[in-house]
């Protein structure tokens, strides 16, 4: 997010063969949030039934705010609100890990995940996006998209590792 604007949505779904399928929608301007949100809801609508994992409860709040601002595909929104599962809460409530917080940036490396960008972080990504809006640069856009995908890839790594422990 950049202020109140959610400019990028990313998710990784697992296909029938167990392979990850990565998808994103991007607001190409600050006033393009509605289109990106509606595209994201269409992706959600196309997914098979099952849980949709996020990292922290914040995602549910963000989904509700986007719905209030822009509406969209009602069954997809209802599904998000019904099936969104806070993976961080599962980690925090059921596992003792050698991490000082339940930050994805602390938990995922415990299971071997590393972000591609050394300076990866939400604040950095917002700054990258602001720079990209001011002066579109394909390399910077790739960095923004890769950071977003790395966050969801990190959740897949954590999820799979925890399933292996269960």
Number of strands: 4
Q: Low-confidence segments, ≥5 residues, pLDDT <50?
A: none
The main sheet orders its strands as 1-2
Task: Quickly give the structural class.
Answer: alpha+beta
Global Rg:
16 Å
| Proportion of strand residues | 5-15%
The whole-number mean of residue pLDDT values reads: 92
First and last CA, distance: 33 Å
Q: How many strands, what sense, and barrel or not for the largest sheet?
A: 2 strands, antiparallel
Number of helical segments?
7
Broad shape: globular
Work out the helicity level.
40-55%
Order of helices and strands: EEHEHHEHHHH
List keywords for this structure.
166 residues, alpha+beta, two-stranded antiparallel sheet, 12% strand
Give a description of the structure.
With 166 residues, this protein is α+β, with helices and mostly antiparallel strands. It is built from 7 helices and 4 strands, in the order E-E-H-E-H-H-E-H-H-H-H. It has helices at 33-46, 58-70, 74-83, 87-94, 104-107, 122-134, 138-165; strands at 8-14, 20-26, 52-54, 84-86. The strands form 2 sheets. It has a two-stranded antiparallel ribbon. The radius of gyration is 16 Å and the shape is globular. The relative contact order is 0.15. The mean pLDDT is 92.
């Amino acid at each position: 997010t950049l202020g109140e604007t959610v400019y990028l949505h990313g998710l990784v779904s697992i296909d029938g063969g167990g392979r990850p399928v990565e998808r994103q929608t991007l607001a190409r301007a600050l006033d393009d949030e509605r289109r990106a949100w509606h595209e994201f809801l269409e992706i959600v609508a196309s997914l098979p039934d099952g849980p949709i994992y996020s990292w922290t409860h914040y995602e549910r709040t963000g989904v509700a705010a986007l719905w209030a601002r822009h509406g969209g595909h009602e069954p997809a929104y209802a599904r998000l609100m019904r099936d969104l599962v806070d993976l961080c809460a599962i980690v925090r409530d059921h596992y003792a890990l050698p991490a000082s917080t339940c930050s994805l940036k602390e938990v995922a490396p415990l299971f071997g995940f590393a972000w591609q960008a050394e300076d990866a972080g939400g604040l950095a990504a917002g700054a990258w996006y602001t720079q990209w809006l001011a002066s579109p640069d394909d390399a910077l856009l790739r960095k923004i998209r890769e950071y977003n995908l790395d966050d969801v890839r990190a959740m897949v790594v954590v999820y799979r590792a925890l399933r292996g422990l269960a």
